[in-house]
Amino acid sequence: MSQIAGAPGGVRVEGAEAVLAQLDDEQRAAAQAVSGPVCILAGAGTGKTRTITHRIAYGVHTGAFVPEQVLAVTFTARAAGELRTRLAGLAVGGVQARTFHAAAMRQLRYFAPRVLGGPMPELVENKLRLVAAAASRSRLSTDRTSLRDLASEIEWAKTTLATPDDYPVRARAAGREPPFEPAAVARVYASYESAKQRDGALDFEDLLLVTAFALEEHPDVARQVRGQYRYFVVDEYQDVNPLQQRLLDAWLGGRADVCVVGDPNQTIYSFTGADPDYLLGFADRYPDAEVVKLERDYRSTPQVVALANKLIGQAPPRKGLPGLRLLGQRAEGPAPRFFEHPDEPTEAAAVAQACRALVEAGTPAAEIAVLFRINAQSEVYENALAAVGVPYVLRGGERFFERPEVREAILLLRGAAAGGTEPGALVPTVRDVLASTGWVEHRPPPGGAARDRWQSLAALVDLAVDLVAEDATMDLAGFVSHLAARADAQHAPTVQGVTLASMHAAKGLEWDAVFVVGLVDGVLPISQSLSRPEAVEEERRLLYVAVTRAREQLTLSWSLVRNPGGRRTRPRSRFLDGLVPGSTPTAAPPQRRQKRAKVVLEGEAGELFERLRAWRSETAASASVPAYVVFSDATLQAIAESRPASLRELAALPGIGARKLELYGEDVLSTLGS
Questions:
Q1: GO CC terms for this protein (predicted)?
Q2: What is the pTM for the complete model shown?
Q3: Of 261, 240, 258, 238, which Cα lies nearest the Cα of 318?
């Protein structure tokens, strides 16, 4: 049997060839690019994870990589767990696949005595307590919503390497809309940092910052870490922020054995500090980089792929790497459907009926998703689905394994496992344990929190059934261990129900049938983005992400007014121009897009907007604060367009937290009605 010359231990050629045999031509080219800087542009549904893992496996099997010297970093524990599982299936062990934070935590814990002069400091897992204290010291009146917004601003500042001193300038330049005046946020940020240092604690951003500092300023630490890790893979590279890039540069130490993988068309997290320029400028930074494009879409039908290509093809060209155009590889499917509705309840009712028809025709409810731009849009769909008896699941809220009913169930299962169980009795035992909590298998409650609780426990039973089908010897102790491993990786079991999710929360997921709803200007693109062309284009990419979640059936819809009986003045999203049959794409540059947004506010909406601006000026003057502290123009535009008739409707609009609702809600409604 032939061997690779110079490979450690005489690596067999057949292992490497078997790895390549499972890939298409472009994936194979990426897998064989195992030296120097490599950039893999992986479009939606093109087998990105498969390509990454096969590239690592090929490098190990050919001797190009020593597995213990490979560090693959990604953004979620679940994605890292998926990498490890697939590598194990390719007979590759020893590779470190971790999130940025997990990798930094592991290194910093080891080097803390040398770098920090003592053991690993306590980790601040939730900023709200410290932020609340810092806000109080700054004499800011806050509610929980404002505290979350302040914590988000501090996280954005730290991930973009902004200090408290330069936060105000950086925030204005980035178009941020903080909950308080930028100078006030900067004071809270500085006070938060001082309190954290006084307590001797680190937050999650500090993990990356201090680890980078350790490598930059301690040559002995740098030698040890760089000696350990020689080959790097970075998944979802379009989402890297400046802090993560600084850590990556520190790991590399000027070396170029790095492979980055990403999709420029899925850059949708700039509001968190992500900077797609690292991906777009990779070839400029590494002129000798090998760039491989993956464009064969194995997820979606050619009809869905064609719509996605047309949507992203209308975006202005971006400097940097070549663009991606997906090539559908699946069999033909139905054409995407477009529906206009008179109002949102009618739109939601139509979507709910369509979901019910799909379920009755045999599509599992878990293979259907309803995607919207903002979480406030979910309530009308929750009500509509409940009305027709279709179960649903809200994604993006509390993590599955942190739900009280799941935590209680796992404790009970662990206790039962300690007493021993009979072989082959896993599923009945799980059912009995859950029944002790009051759960009844075939009697789901009609809706609300009780229904959510029932579905969570039902998902545990379904998982037990699936595991027994794979391994008939699985016992309760093994099941509890399996649940622990899933919890560590945040790999939640499938909960049977139609998924309701924001477009951001849907990234990385896929379903047989997808309904993309609420597609009107002011919602998508969202009002806050209209003053900045680059922000509008990120909204287009957000719709692209939503569209490419569909495997077979795709429906896009919008409604002309929010509530029944209102004036039907809302225009459908500008991104649908050229996609809806009979429409033509808008070829105007971003500057004219702004003009179009202005036209929306003519007539009654325009009058309301000016009335709201006048009210805001008076309110700001009486409080001696800048006008934007009351409400931004984007928020006033959203109010003028939607004309909320109650505090509840007003609270659902972007830019209105509980504190502002309390301060200004009644005045806004009075202004609208005057």
A1: cytosol; DNA helicase complex
A2: 0.77
A3: 238
